Amino acid sequence: MASSFVIACVGKPSAGKSSFLNAVTDASAKVGNFPFTTIEPNQGVAYYAIDCPCATYGLSAQCKPRHGFCKNGRRHVPVRLLDVAGLVPGASEGRGLGNQFLDDLRQADALIHVVDASGTTDDQGRETRGYDPVNDIQWLRSEIEQWVAGNVERKWGGTVRRHVATRSSAVDTLHAQLAGYGTRREVVQRALDGVAGAVDAQLEQWDAAALRRFIGEFLDVRFPTIVALNKIDMPDADKNIAAILRRYRRPAAAPVSGRPMLRDGVSEGNIVLTSALAECFLRKMAAQKYIAYATGDDDFQTQGEAGGEGLRPMDDKVRRRVENIRDLVLFRYGSTGVQDVVGRAVEALGYVAVFPVKSLVNFGAPGGAFRDCVLVRPGTTVREFARKLHSQAIDEGYAGAETVGGIQLAEDDVIVAGKNNIIKYSVSA
């Protein structure tokens, strides 16, 4: 089965979104199958890299994923990426492809916002100098907030009257208003918990400011956002990056535990420095056998270097370009950052990787160990996962479940990474 969540990639024209999408989805054309029966034209497949249990159990050579791939004990799990078009200021009022842009967001569980850190493109994507990229972060959030708030505020009077008449809970009433945004009830509950003490507990006492406060919290929970500060190797990027990191840094007095403090829907921990063009070029050079390189690596090898056996020689022009990438991106930042962006997006959702197996002795080896890996929402129980795997064969015939060490699992046990996320189900005859 496929993981059902979607990451939406947004960005103004010329921010580097197309290069970013090419950088994170290029491998899907080369690596086996992916578990999505239909990929729409504006969708692609990226990969979330995690430690695979095959390494723990000495089965790396026998690890044969049904979807994605595993290399040296690192499992690359397919995730769906949605390319959202039409992002310009005024999208909430229908500018550009605004209506399509906002409707596309309903499908998304998390957002990747590609931002031009160099400041060489204005809010319309036109060439300029000295533009402050923090503006892009702010107006993206503003557009989404205006979209949701406008829809809710238009119906708020009638919503409150029905709430009072039916004596519904605040969660149920708000969920009914927000369900059109692909919202689960628990998301609304978390948003309400987040404003507890800041707004009145009774919906009928909410004024416009209280409603806006709740909507802001709702967006923080519903659309966790990763900012990909792109073009980090261009002039003027350094000062813009420093300013953005200062703006979104956690205050020294803020508690370290708990959910990060957000501003404009962003925290310092969800900002990743990237060079999508550098990644695309390195991949191209690797495909043509000029360098040995894999996404996420902190360096590459060329002919004549250790690990560069069998590679082709480069002319001076190409060598200068790859050496510039090595100096300005890899040595300086540790990687091109594109793989980290996808990882942060999945981790922002708190998803857990689960490995269903038919045997806890050999995990499917020698025919193929750890064939399946499914990413599930946090809080998923053992029985809920059985239902997701196969509603008839496993759920209806459910006879029990256990994890490594023969430990029996209760139906309502929550699946936790590293504890009970390798699961063998038993079914009745």
UniProtKB/TrEMBL annotation:
Superkingdom assignment: Eukaryota
PANTHER family on file: OBG GTPASE FAMILY, OBG-TYPE G DOMAIN-CONTAINING PROTEIN
Organism in which the protein naturally occurs: Coemansia interrupta
Protein name stated in the entry: OBG-type G domain-containing protein
Classification via Gene3D superfamilies: 1.10.8.470, 3.10.20.30, P-loop containing nucleotide triphosphate hydrolases
GO cellular component annotations of the record: cytoplasm
Keywords: GTP-binding, Nucleotide-binding
OBG-type G domain span: 5-294
Stored InterPro entries: Beta-grasp_dom_sf, G_OBG, GTP-bd, P-loop_NTPase, YGR210-like_G4
Pfam families attached to this UniProt entry: MMR_HSR1, YGR210-like_G4
Gene Ontology molecular function, alphabetical: ATP hydrolysis activity; GTP binding
